[in-house]
Amino acid sequence: MPPINPGSQPPTRPLTAEQAWRATAERAERCVLFFDFDGTLAPVRDDPTTVEPAPKALAAINALTEVVQRVAIVSARPVEFLRDRFAGLDGVDLYGLYGLEHLHASGETITEEAALPFVPTMAELSDRARAELPAGALVEYKRLSVALHYRTAPHLAGEIERWGRTQADRLGLRVQVGRMVLELKPPVDRDKGMVIGEAVRSAGCAWYFGDDVSDIKAFAALRAREAADPDFFGVCVAVANPETGDEVSTAADLTIESPEALGDFLTEAVHRLT
């Protein structure tokens, strides 16, 4: 039987995990692996401050940094939060707040200059949210954005979203909808798709693992890179959850059941690529 993917030509869709890892192994030294954090590497919790990456996924990522060209976390969390969670790993780049902040494996955190004038705005907005929103709403202040969570009080979703959109209009902010959260952020053109599009310009291969609607832009960036370069190989992986339904999974090539299952998948990847 001939090989599934003779030579270095990327396999066609639909794609199996076996085909994807085989094509990736041919490009490992030019491959970048991108991971969302919440809901992808870590289970979503009622209290976002208590979230930690799944241990098996963390161990596999540590091993994969020695195999591929680059590993990066691309998250809505601030870089400071991510740095604490991945402190034991070398060679992992961190993109926080949808790319408004970034920290490469060695160096200082860089903030998008256009977002800096909004730091006082976000502090004021955070205080106002805590004073005006009903009990049950969880306000997460991130310096450059404010997230309004209603996971523990889903009956407040409409009230919280109306309040948030009113504040966005008042302050000239942008709204990012997520899994039982509405986030207000500066009107700066920066999102996960832009981060990925820039980061893969010189890559020969990239994977993106995500679980939420904001990750669909990252998937689209890999599709665009493939369309521009037939030799580039991109894989979009959705981590399933009931809150986004099939919106994310239908945009992906592969679907993983949970962050814990992703740990198993990445452990297998280490063996496949070495």
From TrEMBL:
The keyword Translocase belongs to this UniProt entry's keyword annotation: no
Q: What class of enzyme is it?
A: hydrolase
Fetch the SUPFAM superfamilies from UniProt.
HAD-like
Q: Which GO terms describe its molecular function?
A: trehalose-phosphatase activity
The record describes the protein's role as:
Removes the phosphate from trehalose 6-phosphate to produce free trehalose.
Pathway assigned to this chain's UniProt record? Glycan biosynthesis; trehalose biosynthesis
Recite the lineage of the species: Bacteria, Bacillati, Actinomycetota, Actinomycetes, Micromonosporales
The protein's organism comes out as Plantactinospora alkalitolerans
E.C. no: 3.1.3.12
- Identify the NCBIfam families for this entry: HAD-SF-IIB (TIGR01484), T6PP (TIGR00685)
Q: Which Gene3D superfamilies match?
A: HAD superfamily/HAD-like, Trehalose-6-phosphate phosphatase related protein, domain 2
Pfam families per the record? Trehalose_PPase
Keywords linked to the UniProt accession: Hydrolase, Magnesium, Metal-binding
The UniProt catalytic activity note for this protein reads: alpha,alpha-trehalose 6-phosphate + H2O = alpha,alpha-trehalose + phosphate
Q: Which cofactor does it need?
A: Mg(2+)
Family, according to the entry, reads as follows: Belongs to the trehalose phosphatase family.
Question: Any idea what this protein is called?
Answer: Trehalose 6-phosphate phosphatase
Q: Does the keyword Transferase apply?
A: no
